[in-house]
């Protein structure tokens, strides 16, 4: 006070009031500090910079990304991200089976369809025969999943998968024809979002095959990046009818050349603000090729019918185009109120199909290789022994057997999850990626084994369809490269992590510091919890030998790897938004996540089928690869993590002793190969649902019959050699029958002409001459 100089009374009074106010403020602050715990003040000081940093580095989530995150549900993928999944829980929770009606359809109508399919003729004609088209449509193969209320079969996802799988093992073009209306067509969109009038009109027609559907999404500029489409509709009103002028150019549209009703995705703009209930944005409309109640004047300018030629496979695939086509608003699925919601609708409905149909085709290829190529290896002889006895062939057969068990297990678990009313898009992406990828591996190994029999087309070639079709399955519905590096882990981390999405929401809010504090604490707690699990489970697996409990041993390994994955995923978040574009790393994280799902699926499937004699060896083989693949992916993360020091830290906490998992032993691979190529329970189990024609001249039929006969004949010959005697009459009959069937099986097709064109006509006779070469002197002398 003494430092103040008062020059007048008013100033003196004002200064005294200010001083009293300042003193009161300081007193209130001291009281507040006394009431506020010190650690909370420190926490606020700590979290605010973190919150500000997070807001700067966190990438914006686009509308299309938001739709993907909001679509479907989380299921077992959430358990994997917690780092603490339970095999016991999924064994108790998830069951799947076919109903008697579904089983009957699989054993009757589906078998009849497969018997009608002639692969070689279909390839030559580049189309299914008219009688096959009619049978598919009349028997509701295009309405497998449409509700019975609308005339469909109303079958489960499991039945859908098994029907497509059986057909795909016979002919890919027929399988695609059945697959598309049930997964990638507009039927699912209509059922969930269509107006009552649209459902009542279209769904019965689709179920009975009167209408053939297709869906147009892909264009020249939008492949995997579907949201970048150029196709555009402008809202307008013509002759008193509200509608859109739509310009579009779609390609790779399966069933497009023969479709009678076309689902079309395009970007809608409303410059004149004519919409009253909808909004601008991606919209989905249903375009009929002929006039109907939704398009009374038709759709002049709608062009379809041109075909692509996808590697010579015979399924219908082509283009859909239109220039300023007037589409009435009544054609929008769901009507005007659903304009602008197309992307959400697509993410919600089409993701499930991605995990059913295309995986079924990859599984069919692997199962066919197990049945036919496994049998061929037992029948085919070189150097007087079946090639199935050669270690180089056994090595490839073991890959096929391990893949078949793994993808079948993944399929059954996924279908059981769907039966539990869940729609997990992350697991759907994993299914599509790994079932088609492992299907490709199996086909490549199979082609190596059958050799020339696999490359000569004709009635006798049972692998050419799978060989030509598998690259298509790899490419469509999200290319596998993109699915691995961007979708499965990228979407899974945001969607399935127990805390990350909540944390992101607090950042997006912009002013939710208390929520950010809470979720960041949860995230850090989650990371340290899985650090502890990683260390403790590392110690526990060191003292748990495999022994006779193969399932228990691998359950412990999966539990450890799950904790490792969850901990390393949380460390990955230190990259912030950079993780979104770090595709090398994201791909490796995806590999770990995928192998965890595949591993738990194998253990779950094994638990359902313990009664199968020899199944432990197949489980051991499959799980050995899964552990090695997950380990390799983790070490790739350690060695390439961009923040210095964090890679070695993650390894020290998860694999302090270095790499621990090894590939399956040669002995185990030889054992599984033998189980696949002889009449065992394992062979029957792995080839369940593979179509075998009743035609005795069909090559797969011949191989299926020959396996047991060849084994018995070889056993009789071995006994005769050992006992140094001639075969008995009964033994000789078996040996002769086996040799006769073997002789048929090893033949390949040849043709007098190909493409009905001569190949050795008069034009092959040279019209030019050449003089004989003069002999050199040394040659002449030698000749003399």
Give a description of the structure.
The protein is of the alpha+beta class and 784 residues long. It is 59% helix and 8% strand. The protein is built from 32 helices and nine strands. The strands form two sheets. Strands 1, 2, 3, 4, 5, 6 and 7 form a seven-stranded mixed β-sheet that branches. A two-stranded antiparallel ribbon has the order 8-9. Strand 2 (232-238) and strand 3 form a beta hairpin. The termini are far apart. Residues 1-43 have low confidence and may be disordered.
Q: Kindly estimate the percentage of residues that lie in beta strands according to DSSP.
A: 5-15%
Number of strands: 9
Assign an overall shape: globular
Could you tell me how far the N terminus lies from the C terminus, measured between alpha carbons in angstroms?
138 Å
Helix vs. strand class: alpha+beta
Report the uncertain regions.
1-43
Radius of gyration: 33 Å
Main sheet record: 7 strands, mixed
Helical percent range?
A: 55-70%
**What count of helical segments does DSSP give?**
32
Mean pLDDT, to the nearest integer, reads 90
